C-alpha cells in the first residue's frame, strides 16, 4: 500500500512540473491580447509609493502595445492619474497618453473628452504643459474633425494667460497647428482684452510677440510660421511687429523673426511701406532685404548664418539694393538725391544770399542723424562683404551660397560679385574654398575671367586636396577667359599640376579638352608655340608617352574642330599623333575633317551618330527579337536552341553598337541565356535514361542550374530601373532552377532526410513567391508557378518522391515566359582609372609589411554604393582579399554617377620574381534586402515567423562588375 501511495505521489509531482511547460507556448502565441491593461492595473495597484509607480510606468513604456489594447490601457492610466498625488508620476502618465495616441491603427477620438477633463483640476504647470502636448498629438491625429479642433482651440485660448512659459508655449503651438483663419474666436476674460471681443487666431498669436519671456515670443513667431506652412496667408500688419523683434535681446527670437520677415516679403513683395523719419516710401521686399542684411552683422553666429541663407532666396529685390550689399560705403549719404531742378527751385524760394537780418537763416535745412535710416539700413551696405569676412566659416559658406543664388538670376550682379568669390579661393578652411569653386562653376555662364582673376584661381592648383583640384578643373571646363595670355597661363599651370600630381592626369586632359573647344580663336595664335613648329626648320618629334605633350595635343585638336584653318599649321608627325590619339583616347580627341588626307590616314571618319532615328530603330529591333523568341514553343529542341543562340548574339552586338540601349540589350540577353540553359538541361535523352547511365548529363544539368541561379541574381541586382513585373519574371526563372536542383537531388539518391528538407524549402519558396508577387500573378498564366499554385494542396500533403515527379512533369511542360521591357533600364558598371595596369615596373615593398595601392574608379548606375561596392584583390597563389571602402571614399559628381577614390593595402610573403595581382570591383547583394521583400514585410504578414523564407534571407554574394586590372608587385625579403 505504501509503495502504491509512493507511486501516486510521484505521478502527481510529474504532472505539476508539466503544467507550466504547457502554459509557456500559450504566452508566446499571445492568446489574451487585452491583458496589457490588466497587467498595468495590477502593477500600479502593487505600487506602494510614487517611486514604484514611476518605475512600473517606465518599464511599461518600453513595451509595444497593440492597437486593440490602447483604449483599455489609457482608461487604466487615467484612473490612476486622478488618484496620484506626485507630480512626476502624473507627468509620466500625461506623456504616455500622448505616445499611446500615436499608435498605428488607433483613433484617439474616444479619449478627447477625458484628456480635456484632466486639465480642469491640474495645479502643476509642468503637468499642464505635458497634457496640452498630448492634446496637440490628439489634434494632429484627427485633422478631419472640426468639433475636436474647435474644442482644443478653446482650451488653448483659456490657458494662454497661465503664468508658466511652458503652458503658454504649448497653447501657442496648439493655435499654430490647429487654428483656422476663417473662423473668428471669442476672447475669454482671462486674455486681458475686452470681454466678448471677436478676434481671429493671428491677432491672438501676435499679442504674444511682446511677451516678457523670450521663449514665449519665439513660440509665438513659430506658431505664426506654422499657420503659413498650413497654407494660411499671414496678415501684412504683422510685418512691423516682426521687424521690431529683429532687435530683440535673445538670439532665438531674432532667428525666428528673420524667418517671419522673409515670409512676409515673399507674400507682399510689391506692397509700399513708409520709411521711418522720412516722407519716402519703399517696396516691402526691398525694406525686408535691408533689415535682414543688417542681421548679417548680428552678435550670434547662428543668426548670421540664417540671415545670409535667407538673403539668397530674396530674388525679387531691386538691383540697386542688391548691389549695395557688395559696397561698404553708405548709399547716397542715407538720403534721397534731389534733382537739379528741385535744388534750384528751393534756392530761388529762399533767396540766393542771406540778408543777415535773421540769425542762422542760411544754416542747413535738415540735420542728418546717422542713426536714423532713410533709404536702406546701414548694415545692408556691404552685407555680403561682412558675411564673406566673418570669423565663423559657417557664415562664410552661407554667404557664398547666397551669392550664388542671387547671381544665377542676375548676370550683372554675377559680374560684380566675381572678385569677391575669387578672393574666397584663398580661404583657410578647405570646405569654404571648395564651396566657392562650386559656386563659381554654377554662375560660369554669366562671367568671363580676367587675367588677374584667373591668376588667383589657378593658384588653387597647388592645393594638396584632390577634391579641390578636381573641382577647379571642373570650373575651368566651363569658364570663359578673355585673352590668349589667359589660355597660355592656364595651360602652364595645368602642366605644373600634372607634373606635381600625376594622378590628376585624366582630370587635366578633360579640362583642356573643354577649354580648347570653348576658345578656338584664342588657341589659334598659340598653335606654333604649343607644338614647337617652325616655318623653315624641322623640329624634333616629341615623345608620345609624355602626358604633358598629350595634354597640349588634346587642347589643340579640340580647338581645331571649330577652327578649319588650324590644321594647316600642323607638322607631319602631328597628323600621325592625331591618328594614334583618336584610337587610344577617342573620348578626348574629336573627329576632324582634314582635307587631302582621307586616303592616307582615314581622318575624315565621322562617328556614326546615335541620333533619335537610330535609337528608335534599335528599340524596334530589340522588341522584334523578343517577339520572335516568344514563338519558341512551336519549335523542336534543336531549332529552339539555335533561335536562342542567334538572338543572344544579336542582342549582345546591339548593346555594343547602341550605348543608350546597352542595359536593356544585356538584360534581355542574360534572361534568354537562362532559358537556353534550362532547355539544354531538360533534354529528352537526359530524363529517359537510367540514372546510373546518365552521370555526365547529371553533372551538366547541375552546373546549368547553378549558373541559372547566379544569372538571376545578376539580373535582379546588377540592373536598375526594373519594375515589379520584371522582378517577378526573374524570381520565376530562379524558382525553375531550384526545382531543377531538387529533381537532380532526388535522382542522385543522397538519402531521404536531405530530400525531405529540400522539398520543405522549395514549398516555402513557392509560398514566398505568391506573397511577394500577388499582384503580378495574373500576368503569369500557364507558367510554371501558375501550375504549381493550382497543385499546391496536393504538393503540401504528398510524399517527397511523388512531389519530385510532379515537379519534373510540370517543369518540362511549362513554356517560356514572355519578357516585357521597362521604360528605362541601366546596367551598373564600373571603370577602374587607377591603376591603369600598363606599367612594367613592379611595386616593391618589404615582406610582411604593407604597401598602399591607390584606387580611382568611376561607377555608373549603382544604387547605394557605400554599402554595396567592394574591392577584391586576387593574388597569384589563389588568395583573395575583399576590402570594404569607407563611406567618405565615395563622391557623387553627377546623377547616377559616383567616384571611388580609396587606398588598398597589400601584403604578402617573399617572392622570387615579380608577379601580377588582379584588382576588380564587386557589387555585394543580399536577397533579403530586395526592395519588394522589404515593402511586402510592411503589409501585415510581417508578424508571422516565416514571412521571409530562410533560404531567401540567407543568400548573399558578390557580382564582379568591372574589368580586372593587373598590377605588378614584388615583395622583397627583409634584410638581416
Automatic annotation (TrEMBL):
Q: Where is the INTS4 8 helical bundle domain?
A: 620-822
The record places domain Integrator complex subunit 4/Protein SIEL C-terminal Ig-like at 831-973
Q: Which InterPro entries match?
A: ARM-like (IPR011989), ARM-type_fold (IPR016024), INTS4_8HBD (IPR056235), INTS4_C (IPR057412)
One Pfam family, short name please? INTS4_C
- Gene3D superfamilies listed in its UniProt record: Leucine-rich Repeat Variant (1.25.10.10)
Which keywords fit this entry according to its UniProt record? Cytoplasm, Nucleus, Repeat
Fetch the SUPFAM superfamilies from UniProt. Answer: ARM repeat
Q: Where in the cell is it found?
A: Cytoplasm; Nucleus
Q: Does the keyword Cytoplasm apply?
A: yes
Q: Which domain of life is it from?
A: Eukaryota
Can you cite a GO biological process for this protein?
A: snRNA processing
What are the record's GO terms for cellular component?
cytoplasm; integrator complex
State the family it belongs to. Belongs to the Integrator subunit 4 family.
Q: Which PANTHER family match?
A: INTEGRATOR COMPLEX SUBUNIT 4
| Name this protein carries in UniProt | Integrator complex subunit 4
Q: Which organism is it from?
A: Seriola dumerili (Greater amberjack)
Amino acid at each position: 500500500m505504501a509503495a502504491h501511495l509512493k507511486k501516486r505521489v510521484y505521478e502527481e509531482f510529474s504532472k505539476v512540473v508539466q503544467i507550466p511547460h504547457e502554459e509557456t507556448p500559450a504566452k508566446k502565441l499571445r492568446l489574451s491580447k487585452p491583458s496589457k491593461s490588466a497587467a498595468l492595473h495590477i502593477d500600479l495597484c502593487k505600487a506602494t509609493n510614487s517611486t514604484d509607480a514611476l518605475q512600473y510606468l517606465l518599464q511599461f513604456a518600453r513595451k509595444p502595445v497593440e492597437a486593440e489594447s490602447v483604449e483599455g490601457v489609457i482608461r487604466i492610466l487615467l484612473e490612476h492619474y486622478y488618484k496620484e498625488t506626485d507630480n512626476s508620476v502624473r507627468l509620466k502618465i500625461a506623456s504616455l497618453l500622448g505616445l499611446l495616441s500615436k499608435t498605428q491603427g488607433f483613433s484617439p477620438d474616444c479619449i478627447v473628452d477625458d484628456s480635456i477633463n484632466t486639465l480642469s483640476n491640474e495645479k502643476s504647470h509642468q503637468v499642464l504643459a505635458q497634457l496640452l502636448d498630448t492634446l496637440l498629438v490628439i489634434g494632429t491625429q484627427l485633422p478631419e474633425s472640426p468639433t475636436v479642433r474647435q474644442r482644443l482651440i478653446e482650451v488653448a485660448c483659456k490657458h494662454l494667460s497661465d503664468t508658466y512659459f511652458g503652458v503658454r508655449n504649448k497653447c501657442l503651438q496648439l493655435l499654430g497647428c490647429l487654428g483656422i483663419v476663417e473662423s473668428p474666436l471669442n476672447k475669454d476674460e482671462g486674455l486681458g482684452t475686452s470681454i466678448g471681443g471677436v478676434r481671429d487666431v493671428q491677432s491672438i498669436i501676435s499679442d504674444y510677440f511682446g511677451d516678457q519671456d523670450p521663449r514665449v515670443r519665439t513660440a509665438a513667431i513659430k506658431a505664426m510660421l506654422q499657420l503659413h506652412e498650413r497654407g494660411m496667408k499671414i496678415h501684412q500688419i504683422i510685418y512691423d511687429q516682426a521687424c521690431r523683434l529683429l532687435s530683440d535681446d535673445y538670439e532665438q527670437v531674432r532667428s525666428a523673426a528673420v524667418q517671419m520677415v522673409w515670409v512676409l516679403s515673399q507674400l507682399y513683395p510689391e506692397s509700399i511701406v513708409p520709411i521711418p523719419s522720412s516722407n519716402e516710401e519703399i517696396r516691402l521686399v526691398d525694406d525686408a532685404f535691408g533689415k535682414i542684411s543688417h542681421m548679417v552683422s548680428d552678435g550670434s553666429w547662428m543668426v548670421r548664418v540664417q540671415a545670409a541663407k535667407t538673403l539668397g532666396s530674396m530674388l525679387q529685390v531691386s538691383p540697386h539694393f542688391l548691389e549695395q550689399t557688395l559696397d561698404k560705403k553708405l548709399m547716397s549719404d542715407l538720403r534721397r538725391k534731389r534733382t537739379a531742378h528741385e535744388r534750384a527751385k528751393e534756392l530761388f524760394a529762399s533767396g540766393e544770399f542771406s540778408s543777415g537780418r535773421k540769425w542762422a537763416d542760411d544754416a542747413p535745412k535738415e540735420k542728418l542723424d546717422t542713426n536714423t535710416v532713410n533709404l536702406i539700413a546701414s548694415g545692408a551696405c556691404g552685407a555680403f562683404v561682412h558675411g564673406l569676412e566673418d570669423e565663423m566659416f559657417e557664415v562664410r559658406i552661407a554667404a557664398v551660397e547666397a551669392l550664388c543664388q542671387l547671381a544665377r538670376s542676375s548676370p550683372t550682379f554675377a559680374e560684380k560679385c566675381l572678385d569677391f568669390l575669387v578672393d574666397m579661393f584663398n580661404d583657410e578652411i578647405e570646405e569654404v574654398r571648395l564651396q566657392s569653386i562650386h559656386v563659381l562653376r554654377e554662375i560660369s555662364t554669366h562671367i568671363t575671367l580676367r587675367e588677374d582673376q584667373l591668376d588667383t584661381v589657378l593658384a588653387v592648383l597647388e592645393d594638396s586636396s584632390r577634391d579641390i583640384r578636381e573641382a577647379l578643373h571642373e570650373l575651368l571646363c566651363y569658364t570663359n577667359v578673355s585673352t590668349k595670355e589667359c589660355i597660355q597661363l592656364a595651360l602652364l599651370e595645368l602642366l605644373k599640376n600634372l607634373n606635381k600630381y600625376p594622378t590628376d592626369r585624366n582630370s587635366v586632359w578633360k579640362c583642356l579638352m573643354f577649354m580648347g573647344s570653348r576658345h578656338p580663336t584664342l588657341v589659334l595664335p598659340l598653335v606654333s608655340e604649343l607644338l614647337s613648329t617652325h616655318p623653315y626648320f624641322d623640329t624634333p618629334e616629341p615623345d608620345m608617352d609624355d602626358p604633358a605633350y598629350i595634354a597640349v595635343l588634346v587642347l589643340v585638336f579640340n580647338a581645331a574642330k571649330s577652327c578649319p584653318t588650324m590644321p594647316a599649321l600642323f607638322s607631319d608627325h602631328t597628323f600621325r599623333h592625331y591618328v594614334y590619339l583618336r584610337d587610344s583616347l577617342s573620348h578626348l580627341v574629336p573627329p576632324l575633317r582634314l582635307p587631302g588626307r582621307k586616303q592616307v590616314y582615314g581622318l575624315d571618319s565621322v562617328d556614326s551618330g546615335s541620333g533619335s532615328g537610330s535609337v528608335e530603330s534599335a528599340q524596334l529591333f530589340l522588341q522584334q527579337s523578343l517577339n520572335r523568341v516568344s514563338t519558341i514553343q512551336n519549335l523542336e529542341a534543336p531549332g529552339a536552341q539555335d533561335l536562342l543562340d542567334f538572338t543572344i548574339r544579336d542582342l549582345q552586338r546591339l548593346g555594343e553598337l547602341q550605348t543608350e540601349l546597352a542595359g536593356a540589350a544585356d538584360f534581355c540577353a542574360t534572361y534568354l541565356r537562362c532559358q537556353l540553359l534550362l532547355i539544354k538541361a531538360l533534354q529528352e535523352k537526359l530524363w529517359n535514361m537510367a540514372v546510373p547511365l546518365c552521370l555526365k548529363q547529371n553533372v551538366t544539368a547541375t552546373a546549368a542550374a547553378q549558373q541559372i541561379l547566379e544569372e538571376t541574381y545578376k539580373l535582379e541586382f546588377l540592373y536598375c530601373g526594373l519594375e515589379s513585373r520584371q522582378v517577378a519574371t526573374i524570381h520565376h526563372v530562379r524558382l525553375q532552377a531550384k526545382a531543377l536542383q531538387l529533381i537532380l537531388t532526388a535522382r542522385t539518391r543522397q538519402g531521404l532526410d536531405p530530400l525531405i528538407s529540400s522539398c520543405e524549402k522549395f514549398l516555402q519558396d513557392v509560398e514566398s513567391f505568391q506573397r511577394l508577387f500577388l499582384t503580378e500573378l495574373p500576368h503569369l498564366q500557364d507558367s510554371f508557378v501558375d501550375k504549381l499554385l493550382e497543385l499546391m494542396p496536393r504538393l503540401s500533403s504528398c510524399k517527397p518522391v511523388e512531389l519530385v515527379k510532379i515537379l519534373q512533369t510540370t517543369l518540362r511542360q511549362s513554356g517560356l515566359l514572355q519578357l516585357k521591357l521597362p521604360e528605362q533600364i541601366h546596367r551598373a558598371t564600373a571603370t577602374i582609372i587607377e591603376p591603369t595596369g600598363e606599367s612594367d615596373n613592379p611595386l616593391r615593398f618589404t615582406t610582411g609589411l604593407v604597401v598602399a595601392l591607390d584606387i580611382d574608379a568611376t561607377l555608373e548606375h549603382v544604387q547605394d554604393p557605400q554599402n554595396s561596392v567592394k574591392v577584391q584583390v586576387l593574388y597569384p597563389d589563389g588568395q583573395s582579399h575583399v576590402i570594404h571602402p569607407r563611406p567618405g571614399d565615395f563622391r557623387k559628381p553627377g546623377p547616377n554617377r559616383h567616384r571611388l577614390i580609396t587606398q588598398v593595402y597589400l601584403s604578402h610573403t617573399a617572392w622570387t620574381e615579380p608577379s601580377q595581382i588582379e584588382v576588380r570591383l564587386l557589387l555585394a547583394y543580399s536577397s533579403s534586402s530586395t526592395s519588394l521583400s522589404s515593402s511586402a514585410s510592411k503589409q501585415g504578414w510581417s508578424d508571422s515567423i516565416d514571412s521571409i523564407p530562410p533560404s531567401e534571407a540567407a543568400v548573399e554574394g558578390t557580382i564582379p562588375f568591372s574589368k580586372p586590372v593587373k598590377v605588378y608587385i614584388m615583395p622583397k625579403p627583409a634584410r638581416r
